[in-house]
Write a structure and sequence with these properties.
191 residues, TIM Barrel, 4-stranded antiparallel sheet
């Protein structure tokens, strides 16, 4: 994959829950790939990047710590950091999507998507290391403001769009799919 200049996105929580083995984050990095984090099967795992960053970080730290614990050696120099996780969730995500020249970082000339975290909330205060706070302590409840393409999508912790209509559409779609499955199961049982 690296030789062909391919990209890889890893969904650690789903990959581990579904028995796909250890997510290949360090393997990908070792061959020069810049893996991004992704979320798959949102009916099985939370659909937020905070959860995914923590899961990936914990999984990789567990593997690193497990290999050095008994020998009392220090963590390897290439052990993942909170900054690595944030980069995988942002800039590397833009890279994998082929959009790194337009999004993924707060850089002049790029379309800035901004997420403001409430650092005064329980669980995030006091902020000693902002990156560590975002990756290891914050969650969706701490998101105060979201700006996407210059449009405020969340302000003061509340969505600014028509969430009620979106929620009703999702609930309607879910009900339709459940009904269709039940009908198919009844038809199969009858034949």
């Amino acid at each position: 994959m690296a030789k062909s200049k391919g990209t890889i996105s890893i969904a650690p929580q789903v990959e581990m829950q579904m028995g796909h083995g250890w997510p290949p984050i360090m393997k990908a990095r070792a061959v020069g790939l810049r893996p991004s984090l992704s979320i798959d099967v949102v009916t099985t795992v939370p659909g937020d990047m905070f959860t995914e960053m923590r899961c990936a970080f914990a999984e990789e730290r567990w593997r690193s710590n497990d290999s050095v614990w008994e020998s009392e050696e220090p963590l390897p120099e290439n052990a993942l950091t909170a900054r690595d996780m944030l980069t995988m969730a942002t800039l590397d995500g833009a890279h994998v999507a082929g959009l790194e020249d337009r999004v993924g970082s707060l850089t002049p000339g790029k379309q800035a998507d901004v997420v403001v975290i409430d650092g005064t909330a329980p669980g995030t205060a006091p902020v000693i290391d902002p990156v560590g706070t975002v990756v290891l302590a914050a969650d969706t409840a701490n998101v105060d403001t979201v700006i996407v393409g210059g449009i405020v999508r969340k302000r003061d912790g509340k969505l600014t769009g028509d969430w009620d209509s979106a929620r009703k559409n999702v609930e309607s779609s879910s009900a339709y799919l459940r009904d269709a499955l039940a009908k198919k199961q009844r038809e199969s049982a009858g034949s």
